[in-house]
From TrEMBL:
Domain of life: Eukaryota
UniProt family annotation: Belongs to the GILT family.
Designated name of the protein: Gamma-interferon-inducible lysosomal thiol reductase
Pfam families associated with the record: GILT
Amino acid sequence: MLFLSSIVLVLFSCGYSLAQHEHHNHMQHNHEEHRVNVAVYYESLCPDSRKFFTQQLYPSLQGNLSHYVNLTLVPYGKTTSELNLNEHTFTCHHGPNECRGNKIQACALRLIDAGQNTEGLGFNKIATGFINCLMDKADREKGYFPTMDCAQINHVANLNTIDNCVNHTDASNYLSKFGELTDKLQKPLQSVPTIVFNNVYNKEDSDLAQINFVRALCKHIPGDKPECIKSGAGILQMSFVVVAVSIILSKFFS
């Protein structure tokens, strides 16, 4: 009887492990297939941008919904620029301090993990956390951005490289690229922040996202919604284990 119990336990463990593995693969494939492109056009010292990041966007990316988002952050907003002798000069909506904040974020987005997404996600988790921290803790009156504190909190390993970038022409070049993306959407940008789903601007969606990002996002997720996804593979594998055990027991006691 002890031998039989061991067989049952092994079969159950193997079946459960296989079910979990296939469930994970199924979920990862399903996430990638159903991801929604989300672009956020914002400014580093804009109060409404800060509110959106800290109360809507970032909290929503801490759970299962994070796997359904291809996120593009565009720190430019209503900034304007001029090019003189191959050098960009920026005028920012909330003054020179905001220009510096936009440059910090532009450098971070390009340089943290070389701008690559975190495995299994449609955005870089470290960069997004770092930027959310800056949005939350920046001192708008003093124009202070706590890069060191935010780097420590979010495990940013190359803060020195980012700092050097901010004081180099690279920052202006990176910010200019974000300006091109913004101008391609709207020139000038009508509202900050502006949130775009699947590359098509819709004012209703953008406004909704600022007060309920989850609801706005879920409108665009095709197929099953995250809370409705079931583990069909897991159920089948567990059924197989039950059938196998039943056959063994019937033969043993027959």
